[in-house]
Amino acid sequence: MDDSTKRILQRLIRRIPSQMLQTMLGKWAHLSREDLHSLDFTQPKWVLTEQLLALCEENGLRVKHITELEMIYIIENPNQGMWHGFQLLDAEEDAPSIELTQFKKQFKANLTELISNVSIKIKKHTDEAIWIRVAWGDNFTKPNHLKPTYVVHHLQTPYVFVTGLTSKYKPLLNQALVLATRYGSMKDAHLSGRNLTAIRDLLMRQYQQVFPTKNPKPLQEKNPVPRNPNIEKEHAENTENRLQMACEAFGDGTLPQLQKAVYKLETKFRDNSNKTLTDREEPFRGVVEFASTNLLESLRHCVSSGMASTPVTPLLSSITQKGRNYFVITDKGV
Fold it and tell me: What is the rounded average pLDDT of the residues 252-268?
């Protein structure tokens, strides 16, 4: 085992929490039962790392085996970085019939034709998602396994999720994906977040949506003996309408855990009391960001509780309706 492989393993072991390490190694299948039993997982991490290095060297494991362990960990714990959503466009006739074996062959052939030094590993997960790990090199350097790109794609869908991709290699990955999936092009969906499940559910509409209705379900009365039936009825109707509009805008039940939404302003400044900015020809630029541990849940609560006005502004409802959380607002619209 060379020094670079040792560094990859050391860094990976540091990333995996101690309480998860034994489970991950058990799923790895490159250490025997005797090897696993010889490890004391109550020891300090650095001692355990040295023992693992010795076992891996003894078993003749190489970088391709170490990256398999990394994939197991990332697949089960995907919220490790910033994920970006993309959408494939202009599907060819045979796009819906692409199978895993065909996809793997085409993707590897396409990418290795575009760049010589690249390491590609593809694995199918239990939820039918295709996971791709790409370590990039160039004509003069070997693939950098310390900074890989991860790609998640569900076959027969036009959606792709990517993390760890730099602008240098983005055109290469896009071209390889487009050719392997039988689509014409791929565009940025303007949806990103650290929670892969959240952006996947939002972009693929895999959450409980509520559609407009003229006959919403009546709310249960919390006070069986209202002091003024007319006032209570009016309050109940207002509450009912707010809840209906909140659910129509953001969904019902458990919502995708989106952390933020960003609005970039590039509009003409309008304020008669400030002629200096109003008379400027160039647009006024600014950024507004909404952030929360669960932004959609927070927005739904603000609307349903009356903290935010109704009907819901399209600037907020577009998060779910368009599956985006990055918007550029100009004088021509969003």
Answer: 90
| Distance separating alpha carbons of residues 202 and 22, to the nearest angstrom | 33
Q: What is the value of pTM for the model shown? A: 0.84
pLDDT at 156: 86
d(CA 145, CA 3): 13
- What the block records as the tokens of 95 is 């796009």
* Separation between Cα atoms, residue 47 and residue 21, nearest integer Å: 14
What's the whole-number average pLDDT of the chain? 88
Pair of tokens at residue 199: 């952006």
**Rounded CA gap, 171 and 167, in Å?**
8
Q: CB burial class (10 A; 0-12, 13-18, 19+) of residue 295?
A: buried
Q: What tokens appear for 162 in the block?
A: 């990517």
Rounded Cα distance, 183 and 59, in Å:
43
> Using an 8 Å Cβ cutoff, are 296 and 255 in contact?
yes
Q: By three-state DSSP, how is residue 114 classified?
A: helix
